[in-house]
Amino acid sequence: MSDPTTIRRLYGRRSGHKLRQGQAALVEELLPAIGVPDEGPLGAAVLFGGDRSLHFEIGFGSGEHLAYRADLLPDHGFIGCEPFLNGVVGALQHVRDQHLTNVRLHMGDALEILERLPDASLRFVYLLHPDPWPKARHAKRRMVNHGPLDLIAAKLQPGGEFRLGTDDPTYCRWSMMIMNQRPDFEWLAEKAEDFLVRPGGWPETRYEAKARRKGHEVWYFRYRRAAMNEEIRVRP
Questions:
Q1: Confidence (pLDDT) at 18
Q2: Active-site residue among 71, 109, 131, 194?
Q3: Can you tell me the distance from the alpha carbon of 34 to that of 101, in angstroms, rounded to the nearest whole number?
Q4: Which of 195, 127, 156 lies closest to 54 in space, CA to CA?
Q5: What is the spatial distance between Cα 101 and Cα 75, in angstroms, rounded to a whole number?
Q6: How far is CA 136 from CA 132, 139, 142, 149, 170, in A?
Q7: Is residue 97 annotated as part of the catalytic site, yes or no?
Q8: CATH number of the domain that 133 lies in?
Q9: According to the model, what pLDDT value does residue 228 have?
Q10: Residue 5, domain member (yes or no)
Q11: Is 202 inside any structural domain?
Q12: CB–CB of 155/116 below 8 Å?
C-alpha cells in the first residue's frame, strides 16, 4: 500500500464565523456523545454497539448528504469526518433535528480514522466536492491520489462502492486519469449520462446547489471495489 501521509497535513481554514450560543452548546454537549473515540481500533461494534453495514464520508461539508443517507438507512452506521468546525456544527444540527442515532462524527483528518477501521469493513465511501487544489504544484494535496485511494480500497468490502462528486473540470479530468489507473476499482458508468445525472439516493447538497447557480456542470462517479481475486496490480 502506498503511504497516504503525503497529504496528512490539513490545509485551509478550520473555522469560520463565530459560533452562536446554541451552536457552541452542540459542540460541547452533542459532539462528545457521538464523536469517534480519539484512540484505539474502530469498527461497528465499537461505534454502534453491534454489527451493521458501515458508510464513511470524507469531508461532509454541512452534513446534508450524511444526514440524508443516515435517515434513509437507519440500520446502517455512518461515520463522517470534517476538519471545518462550522461544517461539524451543521452536521450536529441535522443529527439533533432528525433524531439520528446512527451517526458518528470526527472533526479532523479522515485518513487517521480510516486507518483505525478493519480492512474490508466499509460498504460505502463518499467524497463529495473535495477541494480541487487547482494549481499543479498542489496536485499532491488532492484526496484522489494513489495513497489515499490505497487506503480507501483496503477498507472497502469487495463489491463496496466509492462515490465521488465534483463540479471542478480539472478535478474531474484528474480523477478520471487516476481512477483509470486502478484495477481495484471498477467504474460503474455504462453510458455518458451515467456520470452527468445524480443517481437515486444521492441528494443535492448545499454546495452542489451553489455550484449549479454559478452555471457549473456537476459530475457523479460511482466505483465498485473489485473482488480481491480480480485485482491486477500494475503500479509499483
A1: 77
A2: 131
A3: 8
A4: 156
A5: 10
A6: 10, 5, 10, 19, 10
A7: no
A8: 3.40.50.150
A9: 66
A10: no
A11: yes
A12: no
pLDDT of residue 133: 87
Q: Crossing angle of helices 146-155/169-179, nearest 10°?
A: 60
Interatomic CA distance for residues 51 and 34, integer angstroms: 17
Number of domains in the chain: 1
The residue assigned the cell 486519469 is 177
pLDDT of 42-84, one tens digit each? 999 999 999 999 999 999 999 999 999 999 999 999 999 999 9
Take residue 179 and report the three cell numbers written for it: 481512477
Estimate the share of the chain in helix, then strand, then coil, as percent rounded to the nearest 5.
40, 20, 40
Q: Model-level pTM?
A: 0.89
CB distance 40 to 111 below 8 Å: no
Quote the domain boundaries for residue 176: 40-230
Per the structure block, which three cell numbers stand in for 17?
Answer: 464565523
